[in-house]
Specification:
This protein has helices at about 70-75, 105-115, and strands at about 5-10, 20-25, 35-40, 50-55, 60-65. By secondary structure, it is an alpha+beta fold. The chain has one domain (about 5-115). Strands 1-5-4-3-2 form a five-stranded antiparallel beta sheet. The radius of gyration is 14 Å and the shape is globular. Keywords: Lyase, Metal-binding, Zinc.
């Protein structure tokens, strides 16, 4: 599914506020790998903040829109890989010089991306 996310390990996340407002819901029925995908979202507005997969223990997939520091977007959060490119929306073109894949990166790949952020 098309989305703009970044990957961090559990120990790299610091919630500044609102953690008590997070609601979690997980399922595996629509996940191709059969892993359980758990969404953490705001119980007030419904915004998904991060996802965790049982296939990538200790890793979090966060929505880039949850980071409000444009300098981080410009300098630190440059994409390192594009996944699930077959469902990319037509108006969003490939990012030059990035690896392209039709599926998820490996857990090791996620760890490498998280350490680079």
């Amino acid at each position: 599914m098309f989305a703009s996310n970044f990957c961090l390990l559990d120990n790299e996340i610091t919630w500044l506020s609102g953690q008590d407002k997070l609601t979690r819901w997980g399922q595996s029925a629509t996940i191709a790998s059969g892993n359980t995908m758990t969404n953490s979202f705001c119980s007030i507005c419904g915004t998904i903040l991060n996802r965790q997969s049982s296939g990538f223990p200790g890793s979090n997939f966060l929505r880039i829109g949850t980071v409000d520091d444009i300098k981080l977007h410009d300098e630190v959060m440059k994409p390192g890989v594009e996944q699930f490119t077959q469902t990319r929306v037509a108006w969003f073109h490939a990012i030059q010089l990035n690896p392209q894949t039709l599926c998820a990166v490996t857990a090791q790949g996620c760890t490498e991306l998280a350490q680079a952020v």
